[in-house]
Design goal:
Number of strands: 37
InterPro entries: BBS7_GAE_dom (IPR056334), BBS7_hairpin (IPR056335), BBS7_pf_dom (IPR056333), Beta-prop_BBS7 (IPR056332)
Domain BBS7 platform: 500-548
Helix content: 10-25%
Strand order of the largest sheet: 31-32-29-34-35
Protein name: Bardet-Biedl syndrome 7 protein
Coiled coil: 346-373
Domain BBS7 helical hairpin: 554-669
Structural class: alpha+beta
Length: 674
C-alpha cells in the first residue's frame, strides 16, 4: 500500500450525513475552453469545480473554492433526510447533473439549485442506495432492488438479506446478450449479480461486503470488474461475467474497521489509478470521525490533486500535498496563485469567535434564569443523534461497538447481563472505571468511559464467551446543558463467531433445514452443546414438544486441539522472546560489548525489542481468549457426555500456561472422566 503525507484543509461543516451523500462535480471541458482556461495534460487527472453534499436534515449544499475561501453556490430548504446522492447525465456527456434520493422519491437539482426533475417511486420502503446510468435508475431499500428505465418500473428483486450497496455495469459492451446487470453487496456475505428481475448467481466471500465500486470507475478493461470493501476492513476485486463470477484477489487493509466508501484516482502520479478507501474509524489520516463520502479531483487549485472527504458529523475537507493558505510554488506557467492577507483573516476570525462566545454566555445565563423562575417556563430538553453500530468483528475476535455524536461525548456507561471483557481500542483515549455490580439488579458488568475533550467518536471492543447471551445496555451522555443521555440496547448472541469460527482455529457450523427437522453439523463439541442448550431453553419457553438426538465423534476433540495449536504456540513464543529480551537487556547494562558475541537471533531481538515487548503487553497468554476456548471445550464435552468437568479446569489452566505441548494437551483430553 502507498503512504503519502497529505495536508488537511477544512472547507465547511454541513449537517450530519449518510454514506455516499457527497459528490465532486466534474468540469465541463467545453465551458472551460469557452472561458479560455487550459485543460490538464494528464488524461487521468480531472478538473473539478464544485462539491455537492446532501445532509440528514434534507438540505442539499453545493460549494466551490475560490482564492482559498469556501463559497456557497446554492443551498436548498430542509426536508426528509437525504439517503443518497448521485451524478448523472446523458451518456457520452459530462456527468454533472445532481440527483438525490429521500424517502421513496428522487429529485434532480440543476447547477443553480433549482429542481428540474421529481420522480415519486412505488417503493414500499425508503430508498437507501442509488445508482444512475443514463435514463436507468436503480434504487435499493433495505432488502428490495428496483430498476426504473426512463421512470418506468422495469425490474424488481426481493432479497432475503439486507442490501448494503449497489453498482451497475455501465457500458452496453459489458452486457452483450445479457440483460440489465446490477451487483449487490448483501449481509449474508455474498455479492449477488442481478440480471433483469432475477439473481443470476452469488459469489460467496469470507466477510460481509459493505461497499462496492466499479474498478477504475468503469469496470476495468472488460467492464466487468467490481471492487468491494467489507465490514472487517478487507478490500477485494471480483469479476462478474455472465453465468458465474469469482474473486480475483482480496487483501487486508490498515485496520479492521468497515470500509464505508472508495474511489479510484491517479493520486500518486502513476499511469494507473490508485484505489483510495475511507473507513468508519476515520482512517484517511488526520480524521477521527466516520467517513461517509470520498472523491478525488482538483477543487482548490488547477494544478494540485486532492482527496475530498466528508464525515458523519458534516465536516467537508480536502487532503493534498500542498497546504492551501500557505505560500504556494509557481505553476508550470511561472505564475503564483492569488494570496489573501492572512493576518487580516485571522483577526476577523478572532473577532467572530469573541462575538459568538459573548452570545453563548448571554444565552446560557438567560436560560439558567428562566429555569430558576419555574412557573410556566419549562426546561428545554435538547435532542441529539447517536450514530451507532454493534457487530462481531472477525479480525479482533470480539464485538465492536462504535458510538458517534455531532457534539462532544462526556461519558459512556455500560451495563451487561453477561460477564464480558472490555478491550482497549487503538484510537480510544477515554479513561475507563469499573463499578462493583453487586446490588445493581442482576447486571454482571458496570463500567464508565470518560472521554477526553472534543471527543465525538468512541470505539469499544467487547469480548464475550461463545455460549453466553443477554443484553448490553449503553448510556451515552454528551457535553450539553442540561445534562441528559440516550440509552441503547444491544443483544449479545451465543455462537457469534459461526459459520466459520475465527476464535478457535476455524471450526465450522453447518445447518440443514427440512420439513419438521433441523440438523446441526460441527467439528466443535462446544458449538453443538451451546446449540442444544439454547434450543432446549426455547422449546421449554414456548412449551413445544420436540425430540432431540446427538451423535458425538471423539476424533473431533483432537481435531479442535490441532486447530488451536498455532495460536497458543504463537503466544508461548511471544512470552519466550519477552523473557529473552529482559535477560539480554540486563546483560547489556553490565556489558557494553555484548553485540560482539551475541548470535544473530538475539541481535535481532534487541533491535526489535520495542515491538516484541508491546506485543507481549497486548497479548498476555494468561489473559488471552484462547484459554477460555480450551476451557469451553473441556466443559461442553463433559456436558454432552453427562458429567461435570469443571473440577479439571485448574489442572488444564496450569498445563496450558506452564507445560504446554500439543501432545500433552491431547493426553489431558484423552481421559474420559475426571
Amino acid at each position: 500500500m502507498l503512504e503519502i503525507n497529505l495536508n488537511r484543509t477544512d472547507f465547511a461543516q454541513v449537517g450530519t450525513t449518510s454514506r455516499n451523500c457527497m459528490r465532486v462535480i466534474p468540469v465541463d471541458k467545453a465551458e472551460l475552453r469557452k472561458k479560455g482556461r487550459g485543460l490538464d495534460k494528464a488524461s487521468l487527472c480531472i478538473l473539478f469545480v464544485q462539491i455537492v453534499v446532501g445532509s440528514q436534515n434534507g438540505c442539499i449544499i453545493c460549494i466551490c473554492r475560490k482564492h482559498n475561501d469556501t463559497q456557497i453556490v446554492y443551498k436548498t430548504l430542509p426536508g426528509p433526510p437525504i439517503e443518497a446522492v448521485c451524478l448523472g447525465g446523458a451518456l457520452g456527456t459530462v456527468q454533472d447533473k445532481v440527483f438525490v434520493a429521500a424517502e421513496n422519491a428522487v429529485r434532480g437539482i440543476s447547477k443553480k439549485g433549482k429542481q428540474f426533475f421529481n420522480f415519486e417511486t412505488n417503493m414500499a420502503e425508503h430508498a437507501k442506495k442509488m445508482f444512475i446510468y443514463g435514463v436507468d435508475l436503480v434504487l435499493c431499500g433495505k432488502k428490495s432492488y428496483n430498476h426504473y428505465h426512463d421512470c418506468v418500473d422495469t425490474n424488481y428483486v426481493l432479497c432475503n438479506e439486507e442490501i448494503h450497496d449497489v453498482v451497475v455495469l455501465t457500458t452496453e459492451g459489458a452486457w452483450g446478450s445479457r440483460g440489465f446487470s446490477a451487483v449487490l453487496a448483501c449481509n449474508d456475505s455474498t455479492i449477488k449479480v442481478v440480471e433483469g428481475s432475477k439473481v443470476d448467481y452469488e459469489i460467496p466471500i469470507n466477510d460481509i461486503p459493505y461497499t462496492l465500486y466499479l474498478f477504475n470507475g468503469d469496470g476495468g478493461y472488460n467492464h466487468q470488474m467490481v471492487l468491494y470493501g467489507t465490514k472487517g476492513g478487507r478490500l477485494g476485486l471480483v469479476e462478474v461475467p455472465a453465468g458465474s463470477g469469482n474473486v480475483l484477489w482480496e487483501i487486508e487493509t490498515s485496520s479492521a474497521s468497515p470500509i464505508t466508501c472508495m474511489t479510484s484516482y491517479a493520486l500518486s502520479g502513476n499511469t494507473v489509478p490508485d484505489v483510495i478507501i475511507g473507513k468508519e474509524d476515520g482512517f484517511v489520516e488526520q480524521c477521527d470521525e466516520s467517513i461517509t463520502g470520498l472523491s478525488c479531483g482538483r477543487v482548490s487549485n488547477e494544478d494540485v490533486d486532492e482527496i475530498i472527504v466528508c464525515t458523519f458529523t458534516g465536516w467537508l475537507f480536502s487532503l493534498s500535498r500542498q497546504a492551501f493558505g500557505a505560500p504556494a510554488a509557481p505553476n508550470e506557467k511561472g505564475k503564483l496563485p492569488p494570496t489573501q492577507p492572512i493576518h487580516v483573516k485571522v483577526q476577523q476570525l478572532k473577532n467572530e469567535l469573541d462575538e459568538l462566545e459573548a452570545k453563548v454566555t448571554e444565552e446560557r445565563n438567560r436560560y439558567e434564569e428562566l429555569t430558576r423562575k419555574g412557573g410556566k417556563t419549562t426546561a428545554f430538553v435538547p435532542h441529539f443523534q447517536v450514530h451507532d453500530s454493534f457487530a462481531f468483528n472477525n479480525h479482533y475476535g470480539c464485538y465492536v461497538l462504535c458510538l458517534e455524536l455531532v457534539i462532544p461525548i462526556d461519558y459512556v456507561v455500560i451495563q451487561s447481563e453477561v460477564p464480558l471483557k472490555l478491550i482497549e481500542a487503538d484510537k480510544n483515549t477515554a479513561v475507563i472505571s469499573h463499578t462493583d455490580p453487586e446490588g445493581s439488579g442482576g447486571w454482571k458488568i458496570m463500567a464508565t468511559y470518560r472521554c477526553q475533550a472534543n471527543t465525538t467518536r468512541i470505539e469499544l471492543r467487547i469480548r464475550v464467551g461463545d455460549g453466553l447471551s443477554g443484553d448490553l445496555r449503553v448510556f451515552v451522555c454528551p457535553k450539553i446543558h442540561p445534562k441528559m443521555c440516550q440509552s441503547r440496547l444491544y443483544e449479545i448472541k451465543p455462537l457469534a463467531t459461526y459459520g466459520r469460527s475465527v476464535v478457535n482455529g476455524g471450526t465450522q457450523l453447518q445447518v440443514v433445514y427440512s420439513r419438521g427437522s433441523i440438523e446441526f453439523l460441527s467439528d466443535s463439541m462446544s458449538a453443538i452443546a451451546i446449540i442444544r442448550e439454547n434450543i432446549s431453553e426455547e422449546l421449554t419457553r414456548r412449551q413445544i414438544k420436540a425430540a432431540t438426538r446427538c451423535q458425538l465423534d471423539e476424533k473431533s476433540v483432537n481435531h479442535c486441539l490441532q486447530l488451536l495449536h498455532p495460536k497458543i504456540a504463537e503466544l508461548h513464543e511471544i512470552e519466550r522472546r519477552q523473557k529473552f529480551i529482559m535477560a539480554l537487556k540486563e546483560l547489556e547494562a553490565n556489558n557494553e560489548q555484548i553485540n560482539e558475541w551475541l548470535c544473530d537471533e538475539y541481535k535481532a531481538m534487541l533491535k526489535t525489542q520495542g515491538a516484541i515487548l508491546e506485543q507481549a503487553r497486548d497479548e498476555p497468554i494468561e489473559d488471552n481468549y484462547i484459554i477460555g476456548v480450551y476451557e469451553d471445550l473441556l466443559i461442553y464435552r463433559g456436558v454432552l457426555n453427562g458429567y461435570n468437568a469443571r473440577g479439571r479446569i485448574p489442572a488444564l489452566h496450569e498445563l496450558l500456561l506452564r507445560d504446554y505441548t500439543l501432545e500433552n494437551v491431547k493426553e489431558f483430553f484423552s481421559i474420559d472422566k475426571p
